[in-house]
Design brief:
heterodimer; A: about 300 residues; mainly alpha; MetI-like fold; B: about 500 residues; alpha/beta; D-Maltodextrin-Binding Protein, domain 2; 5-stranded mixed β-sheet; 4-stranded mixed β-sheet; 16 strands; globular
Chain lengths: ~300, ~500
């Protein structure tokens, strides 16, 4: 009886053929659902405005046109500069932010740390209460005087209480107290324990938080909006945001002054929006494959292995 | 002990959270405490102090319009030009249009950053709100003997004032508006429309009918959201377009009415219902949301637009369609125009006197004004004749939009523009009747909740009525009832009280 069932099932732990097919189909469908909009956006961004107006959206451009990219990239050097700013801010910001977050979270995960309650509260407090917009701005412009510098795009996001909480929990669950103890018995100091024992064990957590930080920095347009008045510190998202909003404003009909009409002449509105989306996705899509390895690990590490 | 401490701290946190929730909404309203007094006491250095300041100061100037790659060149040129006049280092920048400009400028004003000149208007950087909050320097004493007074004109200047004080200087541009139709030229010719005989919308009906029958694929009348024939009633709205409360546009009395329930409005709803049933309005009108995109398709015969001289030629540029302009309503000067484009000096400015002189030059100095509109001669444009320019292929500076600041009538003209453009503008401006309400600003603080509720009600019903997509009588009945429930009477009463008080104060 038992052997019969086993034969039917094939190898142990292997799913049945129909199950396999079903799962594959399911994932193919999910992939299509995820990819189709991106492809559509890509296609529209290469379509001519006329074709969109008359024929609507389609997956294959009816009339190829680069006008949208021409319009969006007309800023020329500004775009590449903004890309540079974004990449610099993302890389440096992620690194600094990750360093601060995991150093802040580590002591909070240790039960032997006496002032744990106070520091947890300090972080937790900022999650509920903020100083308000104007004081927040004044701190950076008046106290630190770093508006209109590259640091204004990095500093405000360095510390994130929510990520600290995640990281603390991660240390607690994935780094057993006994390992730290054994390190201490072997004569390692706190820093050595942290750098040599704890951090390597927390790679998956670091990668997860790192990806979050990367996204925060890459997707940010709010800091340039609030603080930066010099164009050399505009990042790509803000530049694209500005272009997008301008298009919306000019086409909304609320442009009450007809001179706006002159600007509107031959403005590729629909396709330009899509071109903006494609441009701002930019290199960040490349970050995903890099983090994926750790991401999967991070997800499965707590799961029951069979 | 420890337990008590914990519960105590929990209670504390709870209290703080509650206060947060309660005060949360009002956060940005706190003005820099000293502002009005401070600005009042700042004695203006009157025009006699015309000597050039010895030390070069930095002058920041933020404006709407797309950000331009060659802005730095313009600033350098302006700095060079002003060297022996104001001796300032100009730092100008554009931050896009309303939706990117306003969130950038408002925090700057609120945090008192040292900015010298900002663009403000009823549609960008909330002129009235910011002026009332005390973020702008009171320019009334400066304007007393300024040449700006003569250029812009007293009634326009007073119209942009708040309680008799000018917190910003309005641009000298078209100062009146009227409404009318743009008709598609090829169809006008094909159907022999005698444009001179069209005085009201009804005069177009035979042509609507003929076009509906003769031109498959063409909708006779474009009516999208609020951009449609309802505009022809030209209500002098006290607040926004979607808030009840308006005066008749002919100064007949000083009674504020609910414009959505007037006999004129109801007649218009019925008319629109009739047009919709006849197929003169697009069957999908209720879901269309992009007026200018629809207009560009060329599938419409008549489009309602706010008019001014040369409107048809301007719209030809943006739509690539030839239009014929038909004026319907009388030109009027309303608050919409007086606060349409202004320059203000924030209280954070360290050199308000110099900033004001710079603003003054935008009205009097042809070179400086055109530098900011067209860029550098020989690089961004070349002169065709004394007053006419041609843009070059260098697109590094295409700010344009001379209506944003200063005196638009000293701007150069483009080749395709009517050489008499500014004369026509002036004549058009002179035609306008100033509205009784000119200079009145409604303060909505007492009825904020009602206004919010009314906005929702209007948004819910206006399309069915304005576009004629549903039965007029039953919709109107439901609309009226919901407006009543939302407190329309209180709002209009509040408007009336404030309006009467204001009239008494200014002696109208």
């Amino acid at each position: 009886m038992m052997s019969k069932i086993l034969k039917k099932q094939g190898k142990l732990n292997q799913i049945s053929a129909t199950g396999n097919i079903l799962l594959n189909v399911l994932f193919i469908v999910i992939t299509i659902v995820c990819m189709a909009p991106v492809l559509l956006v890509l296609s529209i961004s290469f379509s001519s405005e006329e074709a969109i107006r008359h024929g609507g959206y389609s997956f294959i451009p009816q009339e190829l046109s680069l006008k949208a990219y021409d319009y969006v990239l007309k800023a020329g050097d500004a775009i590449w500069r903004a890309y540079g700013v974004s990449i610099f801010v993302t890389v440096v910001g992620t690194f600094l932010s990750l360093a601060i977050i995991c150093m802040y979270a580590y002591p909070l995960s240790r039960s032997s740390f006496k002032a744990k309650g106070f520091f947890s509260f300090l972080a937790y407090f900022t999650m509920i209460f903020g100083g308000g917009l104007v004081p927040w701005i004044m701190v950076y412009t008046r106290l630190f005087k770093i508006s209109n510098s590259i640091w204004i795009l990095i500093f405000p996001y360095l510390m994130n209480a929510w990520f600290v909480m995640i990281m603390r929990t991660f240390y607690k669950t994935s780094v057993p107290e006994s390992i730290i103890e054994s390190a201490r018995i072997d004569g390692a100091g706190e820093f050595r324990t942290f750098l040599v024992i704890v951090l390597p064990l927390s790679k998956a957590g670091l990668a997860t938080i790192g990806l979050f930080c990367t996204l925060v920095y890459w997707n940010d347009w709010y800091l340039p909006l609030m603080f930066v008045t010099e164009r050399k510190f505009f990042n790509i998202q803000y530049l694209m945001y500005q272009t997008l909003v301008s298009i919306q404003y000019l086409t909304s009909g609320s442009a009450q002054f007809s001179e706006a009409a002159v600007v509107l002449a031959n403005l590729p509105t629909e396709s330009a929006r899509m071109a903006i989306a494609i441009i701002s996705i930019g290199p960040i899509v490349l970050a995903y494959p890099f983090f994926r390895k750790y991401f999967v690990k991070g997800l499965t590490i707590g799961a029951v292995k069979g | 002990m420890k337990k008590m401490q914990r519960s105590l701290s929990f209670a504390l946190v709870l209290i703080m959270m509650l206060t947060m929730i309660i005060t949360g909404c009002g956060a940005p309203a706190e003005p820099a405490a000293s502002s009005p007094a401070q600005s009042a006491s700042q004695a203006p250095a009157s025009s006699q102090a015309a000597e050039v300041p010895k030390e070069q100061v930095e002058l920041t100037f933020y404006c709407v319009a797309d950000s331009q790659p060659d802005m730095q060149k313009i600033c350098d040129a302006a700095t060079e030009y002003l060297k022996d006049k104001l001796n300032v280092k100009v730092k100008a920048e554009n931050f896009g249009w309303g939706d990117t400009y306003t969130p950038k400028i408002n925090p700057m004003l609120a945090s008192g950053q040292p900015v010298d000149i900002v663009f403000t208007a009823n549609w960008a950087a909330n002129y009235r709100v910011n002026a009332n909050a005390g973020y702008f320097v009171d320019l009334t004493p400066y304007l007393k003997d300024s040449p700006i007074r003569e250029i812009v004109g007293d009634d326009f200047l007073n119209g942009s004032a708040i309680n008799g004080k000018n917190f910003a200087v309005p641009c000298n541009k078209e100062k009146v508006h009227n409404w009318g139709f743009l008709l598609k030229k090829d169809l006008v010719e094909k159907y022999n429309v005698d444009v001179s005989k069209i005085k009201k919308m009804e005069d177009l009906e035979p042509y609507f009918d003929a076009i509906k029958k003769g031109e498959p694929g063409v909708t006779p009348l474009l009516n999208v959201q609020m951009e449609g024939p309802f505009k022809l009633l030209d209500w002098d709205n006290i607040s926004d377009d979607d808030i009840p409360g308006a005066l008749y546009p002919d100064n007949r009395d000083n009674t504020i009415v609910n414009q959505f329930e007037t006999p004129e409005a109801i007649a218009m709803y019925k008319k629109m219902r009739e047009y919709y049933n006849k197929g003169w309005i697009h069957p999908d009108a209720a879901t269309q949301d992009n007026f200018s995109e629809e207009m560009k398709t060329g599938k419409y015969f008549a489009v309602v637009q706010s008019m001014k001289p040369g409107k048809a030629e301007e719209m030809k540029l943006s739509t690539n369609i030839d239009w014929v302009q038909v004026d319907i309503t009388t030109p009027v000067m309303s608050n919409r125009e007086t606060t349409g484009a202004l320059l203000a000096i924030p209280i954070g400015s360290e050199h308000p006197d110099i900033a004001f002189k710079f603003i003054e030059m935008l009205y009097t100095d042809k070179f400086l004004k055109n530098l900011f509109v067209y860029g550098i001669e020989g690089e961004h444009y070349e002169k065709v004749s004394e007053n006419v320019v041609r843009l070059t292929d260098n697109t590094g500076y295409r700010a344009g939009n001379g209506w944003r600041f200063g005196d638009q009538f000293i701007d150069y003209l483009l080749e395709n523009e009517d050489p008499d453009k500014w004369e026509q503008f002036k004549a058009y401006n002179d035609m306008g009747i100033p509205m009784n309400s000119l200079g009145f600003a409604f303060d909505a603080t007492n009825v904020e909740t009602e206004i919010g509720a009314l906005k929702n009600v209007v948004q819910k019903y206006y399309k069915q009525l304005f576009l004629g997509t549903a039965d007029t009588d039953s919709t109107l009945k439901a609309f009226s009832e919901e407006m009543k429930k939302a407190g329309v009477d209180d709002v209009i009463a509040e408007m009336q009280t404030q309006y009467d008080e204001w009239r008494k104060a200014v002696g109208k």
